[in-house]
Every structure is written in C-alpha cells, then in structure tokens.
Amino acid sequence: MRTLLLRPGAEELNYEIRGIVKKARQVEALGQRITWENIGDPIQKNNNVPVWMKEIVAELVKQDYSYGYADSKGVLETREFLASLNNEKKGVQITASDILFFNGLGDAIAKLYQFLIPTARIIGPSPAYSTHSSAEAAHANTSPITYKLDPDNQWLPDMEDLYNKVKYNPSIVGILIINPDNPTGMVYPKEVLESFVEIAREFKLLLIADEIYQNITYNGIKAVALSEVVGDLPAISLKGISKEFPWPGSRCGWMEFYNRDASKEFGKLVQTLENAKMIEVCSTILPQLSIPKIMSHPAYKTYRLEENSKIGKRSQLLSDLLDGIPGIKFNPTQGAFYNTIVFEETYLKPDQLLPVENVSIKNLLDSWLEEQGMPLDKRFVYCLLASTGICVVPISSFCSELRGFRVTLLEDDEATFRRTFTKLAEAIKQYLGV
C-alpha cells in the first residue's frame, strides 16, 4: 500500500477465546469431536430458553414498533425500568437519562476507550478479560496496565499492588473492576469494593465496573453492586442480558452513569459517548423492548435462582473432580460461570505431551508446537485439544504471567459435564506425570 493503514495500537487487539476455535476446527475436520469450553455461550451448552421468555419475544416480533428506531440512548421505558432496579439498591440514584444502550458490551467497551486520550490509562485485573485488556492496550498503543488477582487468596485482588501502581503511575485515570469476575469466577466482598472506592477517592479516579454477571451468583454468595458503595464518585457500570437471560445473540448491553456531575471531565466523557450514539442513531431495539417484560415476569426470579443453583452444583462437582491433583491451584467459584485452573510453576516442562492416536492430528499438533516462545500453558491447551478434543483457553492469553487455563460451568447435561471434566482431570494428571 502507498501508506500505512492501521492506527498505532491496532495490532494489540487479541481474542484468544475465539482464536482457539480456528485450531479446534482444524482438529474437528480430521475426525476429532470437539467439546467447546472456550467461550461462555449458554445456548451452545444445552441451556434452554424458557417457553414463557420465547413467548414474550415472539409477541414483540408481531408488533410493528419493534422494527423501528428507538431513542438514540435506548428505549425510554426500558431505561426507566433499569434505573428503578438500580435505585432499589439504595445507593447512587439514577434516572433514565443516566443509561445508554449499545450493541453488546463489546461495543460499549470499544466506544469507552475510543474517546479517551491515548495517555489516559485504565488499570484492570490480571488475569484480564480479553475484550477489556485488548481495547485498553490498543487505545494506548502499549501493553495493558494491570493489578494482580491472587490465586492463593481466592482470586481476591492484591490491593497493595493496585495502590502502588496507581500511586506511582499518574497516567492512570481509572480502575476497572469485573464483578463477578471473568475468568476466575470470584465475587468481590463489600469491603474489597470499598477499598477500590477509597483508592479512587484518594487519587481522583474514575471507577468502571463490568457487572454483566451481577445476577449470576450461587452457593450462598450475593454480589454487591458498585452503585451501593461508590458514594459521590464518578463511575460507570457495564451491564447486559447476554448471559443472564440468556440471549448472547441479542448483542444488547448498556452503561449506567453514576454521579455524572461529580467531575467536569467525566461529564464531558458521558456527553461524548451519548453524542457518538446519536451519530449511530440507536442500538438494536427488540432485545431492549424485552427487558422489562422478561425481568418483571413472575417466573423470572425463580428461573434465575434455579439456573444459578445449577451452576453452583457444577462448580462443586468440578471441585470434587479436580480435588487433590498435584501441580494445580484451584478455587471454587462464587459467580459467573467460569473457573480458572492454574499450574504450579515447577510442574510445566517444555517437552510435555499427551498421546494423540490420529496421525494427521498428531502432525498438526507438531506443527503448532513449533511456535517460538509459546507459553507453556498454551502448549498444554494445544495438546489437550489434539488428544481429547476439549477446547479451553490458556490463562497466558488473559494478560497474565500465571500459567493455566479457563473452563466454563455451562454444560447443562450432568452426564456430559461429568464425562468432560473427568477426562480433563485424567489429562492433567497424565500431562504432569502425577
């Protein structure tokens, strides 16, 4: 080309969660059945959408108004409904004007970083969810800045690490919290959230909370919302219906702005995000129309409690299957539907393999393993895929120095779930030689 095409930082965009699919499809084409544990799609894992929920959407489809434009910020009645849900928590009070809809949280996250100046950095957790870390890195044209989540302390954040990084890096303007967390399944206790608020208050920072899994908690745990503890600080909550209904194909997410007048700079950011949405006209209307009807339906709370209970049981079953395996760190989850398994440093070697009976798949694996500088957890993931057909994601791809992998807790058929993770447990032991 006669000139450069890519803006600086564009090559930082990376999404291994879907990238591993390319490898899995190659293996599948050679005769191996694939068990997809790489992505949090409930529909793919035999989760059934209730009939009453389908009927609500079907009725909306019959209405001509569901085919038109919405207000640029989103359907007014839906924004009023969501504002009332937030206000019931007795924390920061908002109105419909403080809510802005996007075509999924990926769209919202991209827009957020798009309008920050390149020198303004948002520090986020590590392991990091790739959509956040990649967008932040691409925006800044450098590696993401992260604070550590500690696998030896139930994946809770290392607040000293966070404090020092904020204190000694004046380019940090905000803190990202993912609660419940993806990829670890950890839920922040209230006192930890309050510590985030204290740091933000001391250094005059923006707080951003990805709370898309807010209503997916189990085994006696409830998630505290950012709005309950943030007080008068500027903050943004990111929410959506992809996982909760579940309706991942809806691509429907929104931002809730807290204390938009608390800071002149924050107010300008909010206004800019709203102006950008006006240029696009609006986000997809059908899922927005469904939100109040589904979430206020008399069956909804029971449905969500039952689904959460199922995930909690799978979390416990996974704990039972992996319990006692030398060489791994494992924490039972509290929310969302993922678990991150970490290898002890001394157990991974650069020559470890798993048996692969299919010669063509073995040759394919050998070609993958020629990659220079491959993290050792990625090597395990490739070997696991070629040997068993189980497709997981290496934790090194979640912007982490740890070595391990993420799985989902979504498979609704217990026999299939048990079979998959029994096979995984055996593969881990064989790979580590324990």
TrEMBL record:
Domain of life according to the entry: Bacteria
MF terms in GO: transaminase activity
InterPro entries: Ala_Aminotransferase (IPR051926), Aminotransferase_I/II_large (IPR004839), PyrdxlP-dep_Trfase (IPR015424), PyrdxlP-dep_Trfase_major (IPR015421), PyrdxlP-dep_Trfase_small (IPR015422)
Classification via CDD domains: AAT_like
Reported cofactor(s): pyridoxal 5'-phosphate
Record keywords: Aminotransferase, Pyridoxal phosphate, Transferase
Pfam family, one: Aminotran_1_2
UniProt domain Aminotransferase class I/classII large: residue ranges: 40-412
EC assignment: 2.6.1.2
Family annotation (SUPFAM superfamilies): PLP-dependent transferases
Keyword Transferase: yes
Family: Belongs to the class-I pyridoxal-phosphate-dependent aminotransferase family.
Name of the molecule in the record: alanine transaminase
Species name: Belliella kenyensis
Lineage: Bacteria, Pseudomonadati, Bacteroidota, Cytophagia, Cytophagales
